[in-house]
Structure formats: structure tokens, C-alpha cells
Design brief:
By secondary structure, the chain is mainly alpha-helical. It has five helices and four strands. It binds zinc ion (ZN).
């Protein structure tokens, strides 16, 4: 096999390896993401805390309500009990009484919306938990599938890498070094063919002198585009 043919074959193998590596990484990334479960668990936690806070708020309002009710009742007993006859004192109690009643009305009004909000959060949490259970179940089977696929791809990659290394071992060092450098810098294309005097890499027609040089060379030569080596074979 000529050097050019060996390099073209090596390039084919290297391109296939690059595709396999990309596919392997896609699988790896999906495995790392755990199907979005960590984010969903975090959301469940946050919603659970919000639900607890909403319940706490209702409890706080209810305890305020009880206190205010007994306060109002106590003030009314003093107001209408007949024991206090001093006008100034009565006026003071009346003022306190109407303030307490206003506050009582406010607290009473805020209980219903707080209950609606708590119920809403409770429902959200229940939905999330059920969603999480579903996703955990489907992730378990997906994860098994991915692990199998990953190990299969890994084995195939290693087998192809051995073939690649065997191919490379037959290529002279200087040619291999040039090829490797270009393959990396030119995104997986190091050797291109020249067809009827035209470089298939950059679509430029080669000067006659270059063609003559190419034909007498023992392997591919650099194209004027500088991106690739060219060969007629
Ligand atoms: Zn070119």
C-alpha cells in the first residue's frame, strides 16, 4: 500500500473513531444528567418547605384570631358590665375595643386566602412527588439501557483504536506526524484527493508545477491552501 493510501485509510478510521467518541460522550452526558432527577428533587424539597410555611401561617393566623376574640370579649365584658362608670375610662376602653375588632376582622379576612394558598401549594407538592416517582421509575430503565450502550460503545471504540494503531504503525514517522498535526488543526481532514488537477479540499486548480511535484513525491504533499495534504491516489 502506498503512503497516500495508508494515510487515507487511517483518516477514515480516525473519522469513525471521532464519531464514536462523540456518541460515547453523548451517552455519558445523559448518564451524568440523571434524567433531570436532581433538579426535580430539589424542586420537591422547596415546594415541601413552602407548604409547611403556608400551614404555619394559617396556624399563626388562627392563634391570633383566638387571642383577639378573647380580647374583644374581655373588653366587651368591661364595657357593658356596668362596673366602670368613669367616662374617661369608658371612652378609653371603647377605643381599645374598636381597634381590637378592626384587627379581628382583618385576621378573619386573611384566613381564607391563606388556606387557598396552602391548598394550592399542597396540590403542587403532591403533583411533583407523583411526577418524581414516575421519572425515577423511567430513569431506572433508561439508565440500565444507557450503561449497556456505554459499555458496548467503549468496547467498540477500543477495538477500533487497536486497528487504528496497527494502521498507523505502518506509516513512516514524518508522514504520520504531519498527518496527525493537520487532522487535529483541520477538524478531522488531513488528506484530500486531487481530481483532474483540482484539490477536493479547497476546490483550487493546482498549477502544473505542483501536479508534477505531486506525481514525483513519495507521498502526499501540502496543498497551497495549507489546510491539507493532497494526493492523486
Ligand atoms: Zn487544497
Amino acid at each position: 500500500m502506498t503512503i497516500a493510501k495508508s494515510l487515507l485509510s487511517l483518516q477514515g478510521t480516525d473519522q469513525a473513531l471521532a464519531i464514536q467518541r462523540r456518541e460515547y460522550r453523548v451517552i455519558e452526558a445523559e448518564l451524568d444528567s440523571e434524567g433531570g432527577l436532581p433538579e426535580l428533587r430539589q424542586l420537591c424539597e422547596k415546594t415541601k418547605i413552602r407548604e409547611l410555611e403556608a400551614k404555619l401561617e394559617i396556624a399563626r393566623l388562627e392563634s391570633d384570631l383566638a387571642l383577639l376574640k378573647s380580647n374583644v370579649a374581655e373588653l366587651e365584658a368591661r364595657l357593658y358590665g356596668g362596673a366602670i362608670t368613669n367616662v374617661r375610662e369608658l371612652t378609653a376602653i371603647e377605643t381599645e375595643h374598636s381597634a381590637a375588632r378592626r384587627k379581628l376582622a382583618q385576621v378573619e379576612e386573611s384566613i381564607a386566602p391563606a388556606e387557598v394558598s396552602a391548598e394550592h401549594t399542597r396540590q403542587q407538592y403532591a403533583d411533583l412527588i407523583s411526577d418524581l416517582a414516575d421519572k425515577e421509575k423511567s430513569w431506572n430503565s433508561r439508565q440500565l439501557e444507557l450503561r449497556k450502550e456505554k459499555s458496548k460503545k467503549g468496547t467498540a471504540f477500543n477495538e477500533m483504536l487497536e486497528i487504528r494503531n496497527a494502521e498507523a504503525s505502518h506509516i513512516p514517522d514524518d508522514h504520520l506526524a504531519r498527518y496527525t498535526r493537520l487532522f487535529r488543526s483541520n477538524r478531522g481532514i488531513a488528506v484530500v484527493r486531487v481530481d483532474r488537477g483540482i484539490c477536493q479540499g479547497c476546490a483550487v486548480r493546482l498549477p502544473v508545477g505542483e501536479l508534477t511535484r505531486l506525481r514525483s513525491a513519495d507521498g502526499p504533499i501540502p496543498c497551497s491552501c495549507g489546510r491539507a495534504l493532497i494526493t492523486e491516489q
